[in-house]
Every structure is written in structure tokens, then in C-alpha cells.
Amino acid sequence: MPVHASLVQSNSRLRSLPWLAAVAAVVTVLCGLGFAMVRGFAPPPAPAGSETPLPAAATPPERVVYLAGKLSDEELICFTSGISATGGSGIFLLDTPQATPYHKAFLDSFHPERIIPVGSFAGGIAQVEKRLEVKLPPPLPAARDLFKRAERVVVCPARPRSTLLQAACLAGVMRVPLLIADDKPDAKATLCRQLVAWQTLEVHAVGDAIPLCRGLTGVSLFRLPHEESVVAAHVRRLRRAGPIETLVVANPADSGAGLGGVSALAPMLALQRHALLLCTRDSGDNTAAVVAAALQNPALARVESVLLAAGLKAIPMEQRANPVPGKDAYIEMEPLTPAGHEPFSFAVGRLFHDDLSVLTLLLARQQQLAAQANRAGPPRRALIASNPGGGLALLETFSRNTTKEMETGGYETTALFDDEVTREQVQQLLPSQDIFLWEGHYRTMVDRYEMPKWTEPLQAGLIFLQSCLALNEKEAQPLLRRGALGVIGSSTRMYSASGGAFPLAFFNAMNYDHQSLGGSLRQAKNFLLQYVLLKEKLLEDKAKLGGANIRSAWAFTLWGDPTLKLPRPPAPPDSLTPVRHKVHGNTLVLTLPETVYDGVKKKGYQAQNWPNARMAGLLRKEIGEDDRFLVPFLFAEVHLPKARPGVTPRLTSKVPGKHWVFSWDERRRCGYLLVAPRPRDEREVRFHIDYDG
């Protein structure tokens, strides 16, 4: 990318000497005053309230909540960037009356040392204090009041909006304030007064703000003539702090036309995740293209996650013909879904809501969860509600195995099956759960239980709706409002086997491989794709319904942060040893534990599996048995850093080729291995890796 900002004047050597730096600061102020007087004005007195400014960036308080009232789009961008610039420790919430019960619940659990109101509030501060039952100081009027002093400043015009979003990211990572340049007659005078007040020594001017910043005596000017140079400067600074593993994608045009305006929070999302921000065109339908273009930069070679900060209209879902004939002509899926049997390479999630206060609360709860990750706390809890009312015996067989895996993962698990599942039980238990898995009919959840109408605040956790048609705004957005960190589901129909196999694979990836939400989703998707290939090998022309597994791999979607890792509960002392894999030089070994789970039997179906194994709906029938047995599989996501670019590692094994498949993701240098073990494979399965292909 075209990059480098041109340096007009540098005081870096002077500033390297402490006493000269002090002199330089004084000279800068005096020059600024002289410049102001030449232009026909004098600097104004400090704004009201600035006599007691916030602490400097180096000493942020431990638990501060910034509670924002009415802010313009530009003010929101500047303020959230400013919080990151001051150290990023503050929690940012947007106040709305409808968010009151959930904000109160958060504040009660977070125990902030200070709540700092920002902007104006309908009804005034007294009305906010009454709603939230808190005592508040006078509001901060603007983002500039976050800073007592700013030796460096980024100045950018409000348009193009994509450039402003990128400038906010740059300012945040530089730990400096962002000022928006305008075309008012007194714009230069206003800018000069602020720079004098801050004792500014450097100005990084973007695009059309460059002419405004010329001629500032005693101030070094760095030119960033276009958006590409801002992005390049951001990338350079990110790389200094470590590898860039996340991309945030937003549509800058979403601030109007009912598209949600999530892009105003995109710089904050990128700054909190050490991520690069990418902007789509106005239609939002070129996500794959902008990601592919970004990956040409070697600095982005290790990208793992893509966070879509956009509503469903701002960045539309993709559609493909349904691979299984049925009621749905097309299947909806997120951008970056691979075609054919190519592995999913990115951990993808989407953050959006029709009320931005819900998103800021979600992010606040996520920050709180991260801060508590290493502290002892109450046990992690999981609730599984499967097959309410009966009729889905195969699905319940999967759910009972998922229950065993959650217990082995250390979760205090409550499992309700068949007639045990009632509206009253689920509604009572749900608010205290860290994970909730629903496996049943959509109509039961929506019409009989009326779950979208429930309002009790939720624990900061994950909701997995394994049900046909369950992932839509009407059902999912209330869960996010109530406090869920993410919702996983599908907007299409699916069969019991492929549907039940997916959460089992997802939670195994989370519990055993300690994957993020997005990484667990990616692994579960790749497991189903591998299963399609293996089933074709095992059954040849008798293989059926491979399209059902492809459909599930496409359709399951995360509305949440793909980079989020839920805290790991301690494993119970009596937990069984799981299936493991390890690479020793050129040898890959899958180890099978000696002990298996107790068998599961449900109305014509049986299953018995190792911990961390997989199932996917392949059935066998034993002689003399009426039940059909679910075939167990071994699955491994295998990282092979020794692999050379352009060469796919080749695996060989004593296990016959029809019993295993291996797919390779060259970008990640990662392969996906699925094995159907034979009875003689009692302890381990070994593969030789040929890196020369």
C-alpha cells in the first residue's frame, strides 16, 4: 500500500533531551500564541470544567464507566478512539431508557469506581441518576476533555467517512486525540487554540486537513495525504506491538438509510482487538474482495479472525442454491464462506443490533469477563434443553453426548430432555447460565415458550440455538439485549444428524482445543466438510444427504465476537482422558483413551464414544440388534508450520485410505484430519507426513 507520510519538520532529536524538550514545549506555546494574535484573535480561556481534567493516560483508574448520552456520529467516533488513546481501560456505555434494567444489572456487578457522563441527556442528569440509581458528576462536553495535554494530535476531516474511521484507529493506537477538521471560517483559529492548550508538538494531518494545519509555528507537521497512507501508518504501528490476527470489516455508509450505524463503533472494536479496520463499498457486498486485497500485505499473513461490524443490510449475507432439495431454495451464509469442499479459513462473527446501546453493553460485559478470567469465581454453568415434547430421538442421542462433553469440560451442567423440558424450567434457569444450548423445534421455542418475550437479564454467556430457522433478528436480538455475549444458530432448516453433530463439534473445539467462539465455529464447519468427503469414501455410491452436512456447515452463524474466548472452568478430578493428537517431527499420532463414556440409548439409536471424539449421523446396525449405532470418529485440527508455501503435505498411514480424509489450508498452514477408526485401532492411529508433497 502507498504509505509513508512525509515529514515536514522534526523535533525528535531535541525532544530526546529532557531539558530541551521542556524548552521546546514552552517555545511551541509561545509560537502558537503569536500565531493566534497574527490571525486576529487570542486563545480563549479554558472551557468550563477543565480545571479538574481527567487523569493522564499513564494512570487510568481501574474501573471507570463512561456513560454517553446524545452524541453525534463524529463525536462518538472521537470519544471511543479517545478512550483507547488514554489506555483503553474505561468501559463505554451508550445510555438509552430501554437499556436501563440491563445497565443497572451491569453496574451492580461491575462496581465502577467512577461513572463519568458524556454529552447531553434527554431530561438532564437528574433523570439519568434516578433511572440508574447512581450519583453522577457534571458531564464531559467532548472527547478533547479526556486529555490534559497532547504532544501529538491526529487531525482529519469528517469526509470521506472511511478515512475518518481509519484516522480514529490510527489516533487510538498512537495514544493521541483525534480532532475533526471542518470548513468553518474560524476552523484554523479553533484548531490553534486547542493545540496551544494541549502544548502540542506534532500534528498528523489527513487528506484535506493538511492545508488547515500548514504554518503552525513550532509544530511538526506529518502529512497523510490519503486513506491508504493512514492505513499503512496504522499497520506499521500495529506490527510493532505484535502480530495482527484480526480484521474488523465495516461499511462506512451505514450511518444513514436505516443500516444501523455500527461502523461508528468499528474503530473501538479494532483498537480493543489489535485489529486492522477494512471498509467496504457503500453496497457492502465486497467483503471477500477487501479481505483478499488486505491479505496481499505480508503483515496480515497470520490473520485468524474476521469481525463484521455491520447489520445484515450494511454487509449482506451471501446466498447459494440449497444443496438439499426442500423448502429453502437458497441458503444464507456469511461472506468468506468457501465454495465446494475448500476448508473454512477464517473465524467469522458479526456484531450488530438495531440499538447501539446493546452493542456497547455487550462489549462492556466482554471486557468485564476478560478482567475476571484468571480470578476464582462461581462455577461455570451450562444448560442443555433438548427434544422438548419428544419426537427427535436421533437429535437427543447427540445432545446426551454433548452433555457428557460439557461435564468433562468442567461445566456444572443441567440437562433437560423430552418431557423434562418445560417453559418454566428453562425460563427460571436461563439467567444464571454461562452457556445455553437449545436443541428442538423452532415453534416450540417461539410459539409455546415465547422465549423472545422474556426480559430477565442474562449472565454474560453464549446462546446456541440448534433449531431450524432460529437465527433471525426477532429471536436473537432480545437475547443480546438481555446480556448474551453471542448467539449461534442458522436461518435455514436442517436435519437432526447434521444439526446435532454441529454443537458437539463446536463445544469439543472450545473445551479441548481452547478455541475462541469463531475458531470453534470454524472447526465445527470444517469437521462437517470432512465428514462429507469421508462418507463418500466409505459408502461410495450409497452415500446420501451429503448436501445436508454442507448446508449446515454453510448456515451456522455467530452473532458475536469471533475472537472471544470464554473462561475455562477447571476440569473435574474424575474427568476421562480425551482423544489427543501430537506431531513428532514427520509423524502425526492420534491417541485413543482406554476409557469411553457410558453408552447412550434412545428409541432406536445408540452411541458410545471417547471424550473429544465426534459423531455425524453415520449409522451401523449390529447383527441381532434392533437399534442403530452412531459411528464414532477421530478429528484433529493439525498445525504444520514446517509446510512450505505452495506444497500440500501428504499423509500416509497403515489405516486404509477409505477410512480417513485430510484437507489442507495453506494460508494457515493447518490441516483437518478425520478418521473412522477400525476395531483394531485400539490405542493410537499414526500418520507419516511428507512435506515435499
Number of helical segments?
19
Structural domain count: 3
Give the rounded overall mean pLDDT. Answer: 88
CA-atom Rg in angstroms: 28 Å
Helix content: 25-40%
If classified by CATH, what would the architecture of the largest domain be?
Answer: 3-Layer(aba) Sandwich
Sheet/helix structural class: alpha/beta
Describe the sheet with the most strands: 6 strands, mixed
Give the number of DSSP strands.
30
| Adjacency order of strands in the biggest sheet | 16-15-17-18-19-20
CATH fold field value of the largest domain: Rossmann fold
How does this structure look, described?
The protein has 693 residues and is α/β, with parallel strands linked by helices. The protein has three domains: 6-233, no CATH class; 237-358, Rossmann fold; 361-690, Rossmann fold. Helices cover 32% and strands 22% of the residues. The chain contains 19 helices and 30 strands. The strands form seven sheets. A six-stranded mixed sheet has the order 16-15-17-18-19-20, with helices on both faces. Strands 23, 24, 25, 26, 28 and 29 form a six-stranded mixed sheet that branches. A hairpin with a 6-residue loop joins strand 25 (614-621) and strand 26 (628-639). Helix 4 packs parallel to helix 12 and helix 6 (161-174) runs parallel beside helix 10. The radius of gyration is 28 Å and the shape is globular. Mean pLDDT is 88; it is low at 1-61.
